[in-house]
Write a structure and sequence with these properties.
With 605 residues, the protein is of the alpha/beta class. It contains 17 helices and 22 strands. Helix 8 packs across helix 12, helix 9 crosses helix 10 and helix 14 runs parallel beside helix 15. The N terminus is likely disordered.
Length: 605
């Protein structure tokens, strides 16, 4: 049985009419019927191939317009999609090999071949050519595939790899002809490959295929290193968000506790005159300040710390920080602060700038257990290229460097993660650097780190240059003995906090009304049974919070003054943007004197 059907279109290229007729006559005697076209020159043959769907060509190499192997070469260059059988009256040594290497499917010597033999040669040539074309198409698909593709034969010998595999395996073309075993299966297998000495995580799937007519195995390998890294970054971002929400909630409740503690502490100071008891109260106050600082760190880490950025001179800030830090450092640490002769202004919350310097300085202190040098210096710098996502431009660089123990390379990528710490247990919260980075990014900048074990570390805080003039900050005189007789509507859902606030107000002569959410406050103000001079409201409450209450008042009671007590930055900026002179903020935790001063200021405004 022949390998294909009888509907085969054949082009007979022969310049000798007698030979052409003889070949046609031979084929007519075969068991297969061919549709035969003839051409006496290469040019005519090429035109027919362009115009007709021809399955095979019987080609004489010596034609009027082309001679020898060049005839086959020219035809194959223009028509790779047709099977070619070369028929030659001569059979010199090496001709058959040359013909096959140039892309012919078969070579026949004109020695009066049997009709069925010639027919079989032509039909088998057509089938071989179709198989070769299919194989070539498969190779083109594999070459175009972005995944690494490796084909091994039944004996495990590598027969083919695509370009992606060469790149992944670092000049993997050397694998051709080498043994490489794969186990076929439907499930993905995770493997690790060294590329240029660096490990790459890959997923591999193996399948049975046919290659050049033989049973073979195809391994498809996909490099998922970057995808895994992105997935890790997404998980880290989700973790950060979850930690931020948790920290914000803890800080909110902790702030309420501190309001009560700070309030009662101040009440006791006024009532107790005994010196020993005053010492005890001072210790409580110190512990309360430490708790207040920790709460600020939690809020800063969760990006919910209220911020008051102003335009400042960096020189002024580092001089102030040096004054605060010098007493906290032992004499065996040389503390050097170098202001700049000319430095650009920056926009940042001064207290947050202090927090960055203090955290970085105390980290350096821990890296200098046997003494050393800690230097803080300022400089103007211009970034010519993107650094840590910072766009090119002008920045002020605050550089904190030490000659201490340094940071291990595998820790450098983690130092800004919340709660990650290289310090011994009990000596750090792991929040300091995360807070520093958060503050720098909130100001439009970032922190760049370099470190070497045994040599030291350098933290460069980059903050964008500000072209505005320095902000003049008004200082309020302390008014510890403020009194009043107005009525304050206290809107607070925490009973202990509400009790502390009302006690502070009542001790200064104010009258108070208490409700535990914003909806109840609107009813009190709408009914008009009570005269209210000012509203003091918490921001976070069930049903209606302080922000919604403030907006309700702006619409229905625009003359009513409102003080919003909050520990969060959420919604504060939005309300500030409304620029309503009837709104003021009191940030938790606050002392009774701060509360009274703010209420009195708003009433007198």
């Amino acid at each position: 049985m022949y390998p294909t059907d009888a509907n085969t279109k054949l082009l007979l290229v022969e310049d000798n009419p007698a030979d052409a007729e003889l070949t046609a006559a031979v084929l007519e005697g075969a068991d297969v019927t061919f549709e035969i076209l003839t051409a006496a020159s290469l040019g005519t043959a090429l035109r027919l191939l362009n115009d007709e769907p021809i399955d095979a060509v019987v080609l004489d190499l010596n034609l009027p317009d082309s001679r020898g192997i060049e005839t086959l070469r020219r035809m194959r260059e223009q028509h790779h999609d047709v099977a070619i059988v070369v028929v030659s009256g001569a059979n010199p040594p090496g001709l058959r090999g040359d013909v096959l290497s140039e892309g012919a499917q078969d070579f026949i010597w004109k020695n009066e071949p049997d009709s069925n033999f010639l027919a079989r040669c032509i039909l088998y040539a057509v089938e071989r050519h179709r198989a070769q074309e299919a194989h070539r198409s498969v190779r083109q698909l594999l070459d175009a595939n972005p995944d690494a593709m490796i084909v091994v034969d039944g004996g495990g010998i590598v027969r083919y790899i695509n370009k992606a595999a060469e790149e992944l395996l670092h000049d993997g073309s050397n694998l051709i002809g080498e043994w490489l075993g794969f186990s076929s299966g439907e499930r993905l297998t995770e493997i690790e490959i060294l590329t240029g000495g660096k490990p790459r995580t890959c997923e591999m799937k193996v399948a049975e295929i046919e290659w050049s007519g033989q049973r073979a195995t195809l391994a498809a390998i996909r490099d998922v290193t970057e995808n895994r890294l992105l997935a890790e970054q997404v998980r880290a971002a989700q973790k950060m968000e979850a930690i931020g929400v948790l920290a914000g909630g803890v800080a909110h409740d902790f702030n309420n506790l501190l309001v009560v503690i700070m309030g009662n502490l101040e009440f006791l100071r006024e009532d107790i005159e005994d010196e020993d008891h005053q010492v005890m109260l001072s210790r409580i106050e110190t512990a309360t300040e430490r708790a207040r600082t920790l709460t600020r760190q939690l809020l800063a880490m969760s990006r919910r710390q209220p911020s008051r950025p102003v335009v400042v001179r960096p020189n002024d800030l580092i001089i102030k920080s040096y004054t605060m830090l010098r007493p906290s450092f032992p004499k065996d640490i040389e503390l050097v602060f170098i202001p700049a002769e000319e430095i650009w202004n920056i926009r940042i919350d001064p207290s947050e700038f202090d927090q960055i310097l203090m955290n970085l300085a105390f980290n350096a202190k821990h890296a200098l257990p046997h003494g050393g040098r800690l230097q803080v210096d300022l400089a103007n710098t211009t970034l010519e290229r993107t650094v840590n996502d910072l766009t090119p431009g002008q920045y002020v660089r605050v550089q904190v460097s030490d000659n201490g123990t340094g940071i291990a390379p595998d820790h450098l990528t983690k130092i800004f993660e919340p709660f990650f710490s290289t310090k011994t247990a009990g000596t750090g919260t792991g929040l300091g650097l995360a807070i520093c980075q958060g503050i720098a990014r909130k100001a439009g900048g970032d922190i760049v780190v370099s470190s070497e074990i045994g040599v030291g570390s350098t933290f460069s805080v980059l903050v964008p240059r500000c072209y505005d003039a320095v902000t003049e900050i008004d200082t309020k005189p302390e008014l510890p003995q403020i009194v009043g007789d107005e009525t304050v509507l206290v809107v607070e859902d925490d009973a202990a906090v509400a009790g502390s606030i009302m006690q502070a107000l009542q001790m200064r002569g104010f009258r108070t009304i208490h409700v535990d959410d914003g909806e109840k406050a609107t009813r009190v103000l709408s009914e008009g049974g009570e005269t209210v001079d000012i509203v003091l409201s918490d921001v976070v409450m069930p049903r209606m919070g302080g922000v919604e209450l403030a907006r309700w008042l702006a619409k229905h009671r625009p003359e009513m003054k409102v003080v919003l007590a909050t520990g969060y930055a959420d919604n504060v900026d939005a309300l500030r943007a409304e620029n309503n002179p009837q709104h003021e903020f009191l940030f938790k935790p606050f002392a009774p004197t701060d509360l009274i001063a703010t209420v009195r200021m708003m009433l007198d405004r």
